[in-house]
């Protein structure tokens, strides 16, 4: 890889010298003596590093540093200063410059600093790429009011240190919300640790959270930091907090109150800075009432509560999620499924999804893998449901109670049609065009049916 370096200095002789030093090391160099050209060059080219004189006519190095950082914040800037300008160079570092070299230039010192700056830039760019990919992966998909409110809350609280309690049925996406908070926070470059409190026995969970000293118990052949110490500066996600042993809850409460950990076998507490996000799929108040969850612990954990409604209560999110998973699994399984037809969309919309988003994701992955054409049909969904032993209760919510009386087929059809149209209208906020599209009919036909059934 050929690195491109921009050198800015009003001393023409120094420019020639720097150009020669860098070119001999196979760097691509743009050397300019007019600092007013820097902005245009930054807009036109991408530089891996900038060597910048501290003091030049027309504009000083500090002012130019601010412009460079606005245009290209990830590009490391190395200040070049004379002995009398060392104080200015140090100030530049405080304002974002990577390092400085003194005049007269020591070529070896310059090349070492530049090498380190380029390595630093590569690490920063890699971290930024990973962060952006994580933000993309952990964005909230859907258009329901409930989801918009959750997204708004995440945006408001992410950069704070407030503790968060996430509630909701299994499969609703509690882990995704926790990750969205972490990767939008100031801790995003630090560690996110996840512990499922229901999956680990009490003694093992205590050791996993708080760590131990060598010799603390039989089998402790070396020190182990535990998740609190290993996650210091980051975020710890405690899933299924309602299943944590009641005695272990007391030890967790101390960490939350004192911001320090008592490692097993160590008499000296250790300070920690960890943001806690917890989650449960159980009724919090019932857990407290039954004595399975400490009330004082819940006060500490429940800084902000985010409740994720089940998918059946936010049907507006079903199709956006289905198409999100369609695109995701097209990429991962090298398929080109183009769409879900209207009847299949309607079926997905009216199934109850007891397993919530997790179940929808599993269904969509199987559809992408197993269907033969480039369009998902209702028959494809039936086959996948049968393969997964899912009982398709898709339309149960729109068939009214007939008080155990049987009706002829025409009457049953009329009852179903009216109630199904009402259901679709409700789910689309009575947007006639959208409802007609889901029903697979045009708007004129929809209005006729609404008048026929006395809906309008």
What would you note in describing this structure?
With 456 residues, the chain is of the alpha/beta class. The chain folds into 4 domains: 4-132, Rossmann fold; 140-309, P-loop containing nucleotide triphosphate hydrolases (Rossmann fold); 312-387, Helicase, Ruva Protein, domain 3 (Orthogonal Bundle); 396-452, Arc Repressor Mutant, subunit A. Helices cover 48% and strands 12% of the residues. Strands 2-1-3-4-5 form a 5-stranded parallel beta sheet, sandwiched between helices. The protein starts with a strand and ends with a helix.
Class computed from helices, strands and strand pairing: alpha/beta
Largest sheet: 5 strands, parallel
Number of strands: 14
Number of domains: 4
Number of helices: 19
* Outline type: extended
**Spans with pLDDT under 50 lasting ≥5 residues?**
394-404
CATH class of the largest domain: Alpha Beta
Residue fraction in strands: 5-15%
First-residue to last-residue Cα separation: 69 Å
**Fraction of residues in H or I helices:** 40-55%
Gyration radius (Cα, Å) is 31 Å
Any idea what the CATH architecture of the largest domain is?
Answer: 3-Layer(aba) Sandwich
